[in-house]
């Protein structure tokens, strides 16, 4: 069972988190000194890493608007932990980009996501920009977004297909995308900073917490088994090493730098998730699939352990005013 660092320094808390059953009494006692008078007003914004999406993170929350927020996602775990101490507006949405947070209406896809299936309730009506959930008196805003700005889902799909065509040899995905990434990262830097500015304008006194991404890829790409659908399927070893250093780590760096430049707080999930990547034995993210029989998709997302760990880190930041 993972040992998660947490402000909730009570024996047994880690086990409860991993099971998605955070104990309200303990958390409420810890939260009281950090809250203002009354309820802490919190807006949770972000993409699928915030929303949860996959079956491994629980049932869909109601009402179902196609954004695929789940009961075991970190905002919902924290909502359950803090109870009446927090008033949460969780509008995170699978597939969201920085622009969807501050400017665009988004057309949610629901779950399961293509190409593994189509939500039987789709198509869903567009959802408004997530910033609409932020009010002038909001106390805390958490936002976890950026991967979709880089087109990570499409890159992931192509890496699997190109790796299969190359029979696991070489770096076909790097060869296709490496020259494009600097431009995509530069665009993300601009859009992410603009997003933070829009959130600050909407809630001038709020604490803004930008949540980074965990260790998807192992430090040693040789730990991954080529062709394993529970890991990265037919990604080549070379492309896995490239994706970590050319996509994931620069993505977190842009988020951290933009956040620091605006005087906001970066919640860094990356260091403490070392050793818990998709390919590690105690993995806090699932690979292409969560299971084969029965078939449960994951498309490289945090599982229950990963969301529980994120909950400890984000909750500590939410309460640490």
* Cα-to-Cα separation, first versus last residue: 30 Å
Reading off the top of the CATH hierarchy, the class is best stated as Alpha Beta
Estimate the strand proportion: 5-15%
CATH architecture: 3-Layer(aba) Sandwich
> What do we call the CATH homologous superfamily?
SGNH hydrolase
CATH topology: Rossmann fold
Secondary-structure element order, as H and E?
Answer: HHEHHEHEHHHEHEEEEEH
Mean pLDDT: 89
Largest sheet, in brief, is: 5 strands, parallel
Radius of gyration: 19 Å
Q: What fraction, in percent, of the residue positions are helical?
A: 25-40%
Shape: globular
Tell me the number of structural domains.
1
Q: List low-confidence stretches.
A: 1-35
Count of strand segments = 9
> What structural category do the secondary elements indicate?
alpha/beta
DSSP summary: helix tally: 10
Which keywords apply here?
five-stranded parallel β-sheet, 11% strand, two-stranded antiparallel ribbon, alpha/beta, Rossmann fold, 321 residues
């Amino acid at each position: 069972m993972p040992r998660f660092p947490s402000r909730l320094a009570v024996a047994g808390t880690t086990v409860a988190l991993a099971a998605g059953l955070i104990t309200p009494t303990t958390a409420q006692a810890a939260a009281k000194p950090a809250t203002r008078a009354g309820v802490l007003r919190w807006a949770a914004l972000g993409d699928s890493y915030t929303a949860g999406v996959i079956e491994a993170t629980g049932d869909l929350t109601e009402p179902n608007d196609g954004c695929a927020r789940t009961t075991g996602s970190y905002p919902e775990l924290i909502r359950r932990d803090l109870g009446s101490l927090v008033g949460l507006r969780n509008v995170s949405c699978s597939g969201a980009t920085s622009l969807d947070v501050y400017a665009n209406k988004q057309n949610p896809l629901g779950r399961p996501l293509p190409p593994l299936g189509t939500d039987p309730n789709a198509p869903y009506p567009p959802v408004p920009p997530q910033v609409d959930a932020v009010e002038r008196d909001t106390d805390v805003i958490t936002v976890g977004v950026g991967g979709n700005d880089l087109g990570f889902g499409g890159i992931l799909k192509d890496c699997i297909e190109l790796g299969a065509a190359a029979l696991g040899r070489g770096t076909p995905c790097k060869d296709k995308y490496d020259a494009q990434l600097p431009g995509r990262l530069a665009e993300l830097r601009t859009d992410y900073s603009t997003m933070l500015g829009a959130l600050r304008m909407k809630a001038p006194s709020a604490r803004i917490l930008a949540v980074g991404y965990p260790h998807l890829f192992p430090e040693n790409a040789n730990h991954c088994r080529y062709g394993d659908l529970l890991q990265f399927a037919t990604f080549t070893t070379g492309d896995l090493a490239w994706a970590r250093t050319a996509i994931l780590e620069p993505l977190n760096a842009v988020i951290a730098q933009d956040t620091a430049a605006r005087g906001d707080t970066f919640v860094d999930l990356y260091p403490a998730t070392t050793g818990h990547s998709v390919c590690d034995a105690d993995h806090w993210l699932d690979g292409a699939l969560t299971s084969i029989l029965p078939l449960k998709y994951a498309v490289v997302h945090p599982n229950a352990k990963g969301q529980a760990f994120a909950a400890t880190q984000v909750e500590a930041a939410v309460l640490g005013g």
